[in-house]
Amino acid sequence: MEKINTELTQLLDIKYPIIMAPMFLVSNTAMTIEGIKAGITGAIPALNYRTDKEFRAALSEIKNSVKGPFGINLIVNKSNYRLDEQLKTCVEYKVDFIITSLGSPKKVIEACREKGIKVFCDVTEEKYAQKVEALGADALIAVNSSAGGHAGNMPPGQLIPLLRSHCRIPVISAGGVGTGGGLRKMLELGACGISMGSPFIASVEAGVSQEYKQAIVDYGANDIVMTDRLSGTPCTVINTPYVQQIGTKQSWLESLLNKNRTLKKYAKMLTFYKGMKSLEKAAFSATYKTLWCAGPSIEHVKDIRSVKEIVATLADEYYSQAEELAE
Fold first, then answer.
1. Is 111 exposed, middle or buried (0-12, 13-18, 19+ CB in 10 A)?
2. How do residues 297-325 score in pLDDT, each as one tens digit?
3. Name one Pfam family in it (predicted).
4. What is the pTM of this model?
5. CB 3.0-4.6 Å disulfide test: which of 17, 139, 183, 312 passes with 193?
6. pLDDT digits over 206-245, tens only?
7. Which domains does the chain have, with CATH numbers?
8. Which of 9, 318, 41, 16 is nearest to 188 (CA)?
């Protein structure tokens, strides 16, 4: 397959304009290495590593295993007390790009600029997009309403043209794409590439449980629901019987605590801690407490395959649709 030429493939020198999206607990070195070999790139949340020693070992493993660009996702708000340490390590290892989420990327952009590290920023609206562009961001990650995890408010058909009309830097679409046809559609809307996560959960290289991978195959877009019981911020999960049992809304006590000006910060921290522990248990072990994070793009997943096969299918579908349009 020939290279798909976009601003993203030129920016990172990759064959296909696809970022394997950073997924909490899911993304790992094996997935990233295979993604790079297949002609795309990937990003891993720094929070997937509990210590700086583990983080450094992962960065070394990728750099020693494959030649090609990869990125790291950093949470840049006050909840991430390890941000300074993580950023210092990213700069030291000269990762190719950083994706910032949930806060101001100013510190990250300033630290990365002189090292030639690209900074892509998660945005859900034009106001914030303009702010990060003014700070010197290299591209926008347009998180739309079909994204997995913390989704945006607008569909891609609205968000991408809006950002393109208000900003000059490249726009990367995040959410809802699981096919090569979907990739083509995002490029036609004005995006220079996509950030795709959920379909890669059902990959051979993903380190999550077989039950989680099979759920990505068995469930579809209509089974995705939004819950605020995991992190205090609305997050998408698969509507398993367990999720139906516990509900997707906070209890009256949790809601009350989150409205109290004095206790709100601590209540949110507790909700986040409990939620992440629940996700971690469900992701890596067989349990009836099936809390599995995913997005609507699981609709297109029909079996568990290698990262290489997933990427190859996306490319085949992209070019097949081009041939159909040309006829």
1. middle
2. 999 999 999 999 999 999 999 998 765 55
3. NMO
4. 0.88
5. 17
6. 999 999 999 999 999 999 998 876 555 678 999 998 888 8
7. 7-204+304-326 (3.20.20.70), 220-293 (no CATH)
8. 318
